[in-house]
């Protein structure tokens, strides 16, 4: 299923055609292609895709939500993954965002709520959002 989603996204990216300038289209397509490669890796670390959307427009974007268990994301596990994927910018961005979210959440001294939700929005400037617990209000 993940392979079908990723292949569909790749085909959609190749069809951006004339609505976007050649340079912008190539840059955005390459950026999204790079980020598509991390999702199978994240799945291997226990994060499952629950939502996948793509917007084809002058500024195309990819929006992916993944859900996982806190037990798969201990400080030691994150540290090891960062070491294993040194130099892989997209993955390191995700790992850093998750590690930072846990550190900040611990400072609140509030009880950790399930699940771990990872939202990745890829456009010319990628955004990575980590949610610890089920949000009541959407952004």
Helix share bin: 40-55%
Question: Which strands sit side by side, in order, in the main sheet?
Answer: 1-2-3-4
Q: Poorly predicted ranges (pLDDT <50, ≥5 residues)?
A: 16-20
Number of DSSP helical runs: 5
Mean residue pLDDT: 86
The secondary structure category is alpha+beta
Cα gyration radius (Å)? 16 Å
Description:
The protein is of the alpha+beta class. It is 47% helix and 21% strand. It is built from five helices and four strands; from the N terminus they run αααββααββ. The protein has helices spanning 2-14, 22-36, 38-44, 75-84, 89-108, and strands at residues 48-55, 61-68, 116-122, 127-132. α1 packs antiparallel against α2 (22-36) and α4 (75-84) runs antiparallel to α5 (89-108). The model is unreliable at 16-20 (pLDDT under 50).
What is the compact description of this entry?
By secondary structure, the chain is α+β, with helices and mostly antiparallel strands. The protein is built from 5 helices and 4 strands; from the N terminus they run αααββααββ.
Question: Main traits of this protein?
Answer:
139 residues; alpha+beta; 4-stranded antiparallel β-sheet; 5 helices; 4 strands; globular
């Amino acid at each position: 299923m993940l392979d079908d989603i990723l292949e569909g996204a790749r085909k959609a990216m190749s069809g951006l055609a004339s609505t976007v300038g050649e340079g912008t289209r190539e840059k955005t397509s390459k950026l999204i292609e790079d980020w598509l490669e991390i999702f199978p890796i994240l799945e291997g670390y226990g994060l499952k895709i629950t939502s996948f959307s793509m917007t084809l427009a002058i500024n195309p974007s990819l929006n992916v939500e993944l859900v996982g268990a806190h037990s798969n994301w201990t400080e030691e596990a994150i540290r090891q993954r960062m070491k294993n994927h040194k130099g892989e910018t997209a993955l390191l961005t995700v790992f850093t965002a998750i590690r930072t979210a846990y550190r900040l959440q611990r400072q609140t001294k509030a009880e950790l709520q399930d699940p771990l939700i990872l939202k990745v929005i890829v456009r010319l400037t990628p955004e990575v959002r980590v949610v610890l617990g089920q949000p009541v209000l959407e952004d």
